[in-house]
Design brief:
Elements (H helix, E strand, L loop, with lengths): L2 H12 L16 E4 L4 H18 L2 E6 L8 E7 L11 H9 L3 H14 L11 E6 L5 H13 L5 E7 L2 H12 L6 H17 L13 E5 L4 H12 L4 E5 L14 H7 L14 E5 L6 E6 L7 E4 L1 H21 L11 E5 L5 H9 L3 E4 L4 H8 L4 E5 L5 E5 L1 H18 L3 H15 L7 H15 L3 H5 L7 E6 L8 E3 L4 E4 L3 H9 L6 E6 L6 E6 L3 H19 L5
Parallel strand pairs: 2-4, 4-5, 6-7, 6-8, 11-12, 11-13
Antiparallel strand pairs: 1-3, 2-3, 8-9, 9-10, 13-14, 15-19, 16-17, 18-19
Helix pairs in contact: 1-4, 2-3, 2-5, 7-14, 7-15, 10-11, 10-14, 10-15, 13-14, 17-18
The structure holds 2-acetamido-2-deoxy-6-O-phosphono-alpha-D-glucopyranose and magnesium ion.
Length: 558
């Protein structure tokens, strides 16, 4: 780094002093805090994104969003060259950058890191950053801070991609680095053409008339509703009505959205008994989560939730069906059996895991957070991952996709229109429809809709795949949540000593009891999950475990 670069960094850093006395952390998926204190973090993440671009010789993404958090919050996450989350290897550096107390310390940190990581500053490569933001009012000024951060690295270029869903930005980064078409209209075009392809391949015998044409979507008053309005206009064969678009004066994530619906299990604002029985879906504030629900027929505000686990199960059933057609009667020489795997977290309802195992699928658990699930799913030819909260996707390995392309070409020449050829084409269409970079509520929704029509299933048929075990989630405020150390994909507490044994004895009192605790990666709390055979048992197990957490770690304890 030459003198000009150093003075450029120092000068611009002076314009963005960090908030005093506050420790920021990259957390599970980027920084999140009250928007008013994020200017310096945003500026510094602009720098980090530019350094990452230089290091990887690739386009990097910077997304300004706080997902399902309240509207006064905002946040930032970085998309790596493949479109996935920032490499965990760089997370400690992002924490250090965000927390550097003054411009000199910041510069020193950067100089050291550039040396350690061997980041080239020879001008041979132009750092390029795609910036996106959700609909939060604070997004615009935070975007300016991020741009200044990018530009404080001499020669780096910041492209403002405008208001986007988080998955759209990840998709664009991945597409750019693969040399593919990468604009927003390319995104819509890819989704719509692969959706159309799946719809055209629906078997004639599918009982489509049993399915309500109409889908009502809760847009969380965020960016997802806005984008869905665009998709809607280009669709045929599916009627979508979007509520909570944010245009009717509703507030982002307030009593609406996938997080609210999944955690509270009640109707979002704008939905009521007049929607009973109709297929409904809910997106979160940045549209990377999707859950479905139907409004209970009695006049209460209760819903039948169809969560991420059930979306995963629907996808798994469909993919498995296509694979057995394709692999059951292999014609030609070029035959191959795909490795199909399913990835969940400890939050997956126990009934879903049992169901998936009964289907004969390999099911693995990882810790909470997309970066863990995604990495594990990428180890299969086809890896399906979902969190119960509705974040997930289906990954196809490059190797499998090349095989599938070749197989499809071969089948098209020897048995055009055969079931085998159709199965290959369906799998190829799924790989284009479903976002390969990150979980995406919009593409997930289109895939769910296509599969329901393929199966001839109403939302009720789908929901009956298995019966969820009653579950309860609580959070406990403690003195120091980092004192909770877990292992085995967060299912076992290693520290503080004795807590796991105490939890075990509570679990033993319940039929089909299961419970675990973990420190939240996004809030200063310890989370408690419990499930059991009845609502009462699940509630009481959650309460007893929360009491244990409080006893071992409560605000008063040290
Ligand atoms: C973030 C994660 C989500 C996870 C949630 C857990 C990403 C993109 N998002 O929203 O996957 O379920 O955090 O929050 O990784 P918690 O640690 O507060 O429970
Ligand atoms: Mg989100």
């Amino acid at each position: 780094m030459d003198v000009m670069q150093r003075s450029n960094l120092l000068e611009s850093a002076c314009l963005f002093p960090p908030p005093l006395g506050l420790k920021l952390s990259y957390g599970t998926a980027g920084f999140r805090a009250d928007a008013s204190i994020l200017q310096s973090t945003m500026f510094r993440m602009g720098i980090l994104a530019a350094l990452r671009s230089l290091k990887t010789h690739s386009v990097i993404g910077l997304m300004i969003t706080a997902s399902h958090n309240k509207v006064s919050d905002n946040g930032v996450k970085i998309a790596d060259p493949c479109g996935g989350m920032l490499s965990q290897h760089w997370e400690p550096f992002s924490d250090q950058l965000a927390n550097a107390p003054d411009p000199q310390t910041l510069l020193l940190l950067i100089v050291e890191f550039v040396k350690k990581e061997n980041i080239p500053f020879d001008g041979a490569f132009t750092a390029e950053i795609l910036l996106g933001r959700d609909t939060r009012p604070s997004g615009e000024s935070l975007l300016e801070a991020a741009k200044q951060g990018v530009r404080s690295i001499v020669g780096a270029v910041a492209h403002d991609m405008g208001i986007l869903t988080t998955p759209q930005l990840h998709w664009m980064v991945r597409a750019r680095n693969k040399g593919l078409k990468a604009t927003e209209s390319d995104y819509f075009e890819q989704l719509l053409s692969s959706f159309r392809c799946l719809m055209d391949l629906i078997p004639n015998e599918s009982k489509m008339d049993e399915i309500e044409d109409k889908l009502i979507v809760d847009g969380a008053n965020g960016v997802g509703g806005e984008k869905l309005e665009v998709i809607k206009k280009m669709l045929s064969g599916l009627v979508i009505e979007v509520h909570n678009t944010g245009k009717e004066g509703g507030i982002l994530n307030e009593g609406v959205g996938a997080d609210f619906v999944q955690k509270e299990k009640v109707v979002p604002h704008g939905f009521g008994s007049n929607h009973a029985g109709i297929r409904c879906a809910s997106l979160d504030g940045d549209a990377d989560r999707l859950v479905y629900f139907s409004v209970a027929s009695n006049s209460s505000n209760k819903i039948d939730l169809v969560d991420g686990d059930k979306i995963l199960s629907l996808f798994a059933v469909f993919i498995k069906e296509q694979l057995s057609i394709l692999e059951g009667d292999m014609k030609g020489n070029n035959n191959y059996k795909a490795r199909l795997g399913v990835v969940q977290t400890a939050y997956a309802n126990g009934a879903s895991t049992d169901y998936l195992k009964h289907l004969g699928l390999e099911v693995v658990l990882t810790p909470t957070g997309v970066k863990y699930l995604h990495a594990r799913a990428a180890q299969y030819d086809i890896g399906i991952y979902f969190e119960a909260n509705g974040h997930g996707t289906i990954l196809f390995s490059e190797h499998y996709l090349s095989w599938l392309e070749a197989k499809h070409t071969e089948l098209s020449s020897i048995s055009q229109g055969s079931e085998l050829q159709k199965a290959a084409l369906r799998l190829l269409a799924v790989s284009k429809l479903i976002n390969q970079a990150v979980g995406d509520a919009l593409s997930g929704l289109l895939l769910v809709e296509a599969i329901l029509r393929h199966m001839g299933w109403s939302i009720h048929n789908w929901n009956e795949l298995y019966q969820d075990l009653p579950s309860r989630q609580l959070k406990v405020k403690v003195a120091d949540r980092t004192a909770v150390v877990t292992a085995n994909a967060e299912t076992v507490v290693m520290s503080p000593p004795g807590l796991q044994e105490a939890i075990n004895s509570e679990i033993a009192k319940c039929i089909k009891g299961r419970s675990f605790v973990r420190p939240s990666g996004t809030e200063d709390v310890v989370r408690v999950y419990a499930e059991a055979s009845t609502e009462e048992e699940a509630d009481s197990l959650a309460n007893s475990v929360a009491e244990l957490v409080d006893r071992f770690l409560g605000v008063g304890s040290t």
